[in-house]
Amino acid sequence: MSETHALFDESWASFELDEDFYPRDAVQGAAYVFLERAYVFLERSGDQRLRVHLKAKSGDTAALAGELENEALAQAYRRRIAQSHRALIESVASRALAGAAGPPGLDDLLAMDIGAETAFDDPLGIAMSWEEKYAKKKAAPAEPAGDPATGEEATGSPETPDKSGA
């Protein structure tokens, strides 16, 4: 079996993490987040211990080391939340997938009992034409405002005298 040796100079930051607090997959997830900003090397340093070597591609290496440790802690916390709410997550996901199954298939449609009285039922209103569905409602015809030939106002009944006193 071959063994890899890596040499690190002063520009690298190195620290160790306890796997009881920082599970290996959480540390690997945090390292993945930092791949664009830093070079990251992970190795096992003992029983339940991980050693992280980090070198910034640009900027402050020590600050990035602190950020990586914080990200590893956040990844570990997300992992614990996902484990404790696993049943809820699976339930929501299965309901979402079942709802996304879509309309019934051809076999389901062929198995339906469609008679002469139900063949043209449209309970959802999808057979309505666009013009019927979105047509503007016509306003009721307005009463005439008066006789334009004589200039008299419409009063509602011929027996009602004009209120202007004429």
How would you summarize the topology of this molecule?
Layout: E1 13-18, H1 24-33, E2 38-46, E3 49-56, H2 61-84, H3 86-99, H4 106-111, H5 130-134, E4 146-147, E5 152-153
Antiparallel strand pairs: 1-3, 2-3, 4-5
Helix pairs in contact: 1-2
CATH architecture of the domain at 13-88: 2-Layer Sandwich
**Broad structural category:** alpha+beta
Question: How helix-rich are the residues, as a percent range?
Answer: 25-40%
| Main beta sheet | 3 strands, antiparallel
Beta content comes to 15-25%
Shape: elongated
In the CATH hierarchy, the third-tier topology of the domain at 13-88 is known as Alpha-Beta Plaits
Strand order of the largest sheet: 1-3-2
Average pLDDT value? Answer: 80
Rg over CA atoms, rounded to whole Å, is 39 Å
DSSP, total strands: 5
Distance between the termini: 121 Å
Task: Describe the structure in your own words.
The chain contains 5 helices and 5 strands. 36% of the residues lie in helices and 16% in strands. The protein has 166 residues and is α+β, with helices and mostly antiparallel strands. It is elongated. It has a domain at 13-88: Alpha-Beta Plaits (2-Layer Sandwich), CATH 3.30.70. The strands form 2 sheets. Strands 1-3-2 form a 3-stranded antiparallel sheet, with helices on one face. It has a two-stranded antiparallel ribbon with strand order 4-5. Helix 1 crosses helix 2. It has helices at residues 24-33, 61-84, 86-99, 106-111, 130-134; strands spanning 13-18, 38-46, 49-56, 146-147, 152-153. The model has no long low-confidence stretch (mean pLDDT 80). It starts with 12 loop residues before the first strand and ends in a 13-residue tail after the last strand.
